[in-house]
Every structure is written in C-alpha cells, then in structure tokens.
Amino acid sequence: MSLVDTAKLNLGELFITGFDGLELGDETSAFISQSRVGGVLLFAKNYEKPEQVARLIQQIQECRTEFPLWISVDQEGGRVQRFKAPFTILPTGAAIGRTGSPKIAFEIAEVIAKELKAVGVNLNFCPVTDILTNPTNPVIGDRAYGSNDEDVSKMATAMVRGHITIGVQPCVKHFPGHGDTSLDSHFALPKVETSLKDLQEREFKPFLKAFKSRCNFVMTAHILNPNLDPEVPATLSSKVLQDILRKELRYNRIIISDDLEMQAITDHFGAEEAPLMALKAGCDLLIYRTEKAARHAYHSLSAALESGALAPETVLQAAERSKALKKEVLMPYKTPDIAEALKIIGCAEHQAIVEKVRE
Prior knowledge:
Layout: H1 3-11, E1 15-17, H2 26-34, E2 39-42, H3 50-61, E3 70-73, E4 75-77, E5 80-81, H4 93-98, H5 102-119, E6 123-124, H6 149-166, E7 169-175, H7 196-201, H8 204-212, E8 217-220, H9 238-248, E9 254-256, H10 263-266, H11 273-281, E10 286-288, H12 291-307, H13 312-329, H14 338-344, H15 348-358
Parallel strand pairs: 1-2, 1-10, 2-3, 3-6, 6-7, 7-8, 8-9
Antiparallel strand pairs: 4-5
Helix pairs in contact: 1-12, 1-13, 3-14, 5-6, 5-14, 5-15, 6-8
C-alpha cells in the first residue's frame, strides 16, 4: 500500500464531527464507520435526557474500528452547558473564579467529569484558559475565571486536574488567548494587537501551567494577531502553532481547531482551503459542527492527498497522536452502565458542591 493510500485510511481520524438528531441515523453511522472518523461533538440538539444520550453514545461507539471515538462536548457551566438538567447545573467560570479556591474548582471539575463519564463522554472542551483583559468581550465574558494570569492559572489547572482524576480528557482553550477580543469569532474575524512579549508574560502562562498539569488537548483561537502572523488567524498559522506552541512552549500533545464552520473562518477562507491550511499549520484534529461540512472537508482533503497538495506524513503524524492517546486513556473500552449513570447525574453530593460556589 502506498503512503498516500495509508494516509487516506487514516484521514478520518483527524475529524471531530457534529450531526443532527437524538439517535444515530444510518447515513451518519455509515460516514463514521466507513471514513473511520476519529470523534464526534455533541450539542444540546443531541440531548434530551441522560439515558437517551448514553444510548446515543453507545450507538456511536458501535461504529468504531480499532479504537473508541472521542466523544466530546462543551460542558463548561453558565451559558455554555450542552447537557442541562437533570445534569447538575454548573456555575459560570467567573463565579468559580470569584471563590478564589482552586479546591472548589477541582471539585466542580470532578462533578462535571463524573457526570459526563457516566454517559460515555471522554473529552470535554473545558476549561476556558483565556484571561478576560477586555471586560466588554462578547464571546468570553463570564466564561473566564478571571482577569489576571495568576487567578486564571490557579483555576484552570485545578479544572484540568479534576477532569483527569476522573478519567475525562480536558481541553484548554483558546490558544493564544481570546480574552482581549471585542468581536465574537462565531460571526466575524476578531483582530488583536497584543505584542508577543505581553502574551508571553500574561496569556501564555495559564496554558503553560495547564500543560504541566498533563493536559493532552489545546484548542486554537480563530483570531488574527498581526504581531504573530499578519496574514492568517492562529488556527491556520504555522507561526503560531509550530513556532510558538510547539517549539517555544514545547507542547507536544494534541492541537485541535475550534469549529471550522465559524464565520471567522468561512467568511475569509474557502471550504476546501481552510482544512488544508489548518492541517499544514499544525492542527491534529479538525472540528466541524455539521456532518455536511465534515464530509465536504473529508473529501477535499482526500483529493489534496491525491494531488500532492497535502503531504501524507502530515496526516499520519496527526492520526498517530490521536490514536496513541486513545490507546493510553480510552483502552480498554467499557460501555457505560445507564442505571448507574442515573444515580450519579445531578445527585445531592454534586448539588452540594455547586452550592459552595453560590455561597
């Protein structure tokens, strides 16, 4: 088998895809299994109640080949909580930050991870590791733990450790820091002018501390900083992902893109161009919130492998990072016990921990 053919077999591993519905449709199931998709991202539209989402995750994992899939969600707290009641309703990052207690942050992370693990989620896009340096920031706001690097570092690392203790992978976001933006990258391409020196002395610190706490995932930000790269946002920039994140900060684990269907990307870069640029820049995994866009990107990258526009080594290296970590943290795979899950989710003990934040 040629190197290109081997890369094509591994290409699906680089995708985290969303999809519609409370059950897994035949077409989605075929896409996941035939393309060997690496993981899925669940939203509120995929959730009705804990037993339903646990069964959905079982259906997804039945599509697996060699290793289980990454089953991911954004379960931060506050306005970003995909699984609502009877899951424990979580406080905002700002409220957790105001406690000034890393111990409470650690306990909250354990609550989140226990409830997610109970239904089969193994990757949570949390904690937000951005420093709220712009108080009018529309996209970060109360999702941040604080407005200085010390407070954010303490809380973010506690959240990372709490997740890992329970066996759910945390993902710090959004590198190189989304706290100083005045636009929401869901709808526009934010631009910041923070100098590299200021980033090194402030924004990078919580990320570095989280990496030292054994965080295996970092998510990129769709923000343009001309001081780092005058041409493209961080997600598509080898200057940011290779020169700074990999070389300067010595991060050697998984880099995952933020959703490539956000307008910061789609308004400026083509549907074929963006995933190719992201992989070449240094992303290992690509998020697409819809199956349609994931399929389109998958086929365009497959064509790029054929034409030589995408080096097979790029795909194989990224796929190997994902698979090696799956082998380390997801094996042996155990199907969640739904009856047991219902005892854990929203239990009195979890409510009491959340109550500490309110007090």
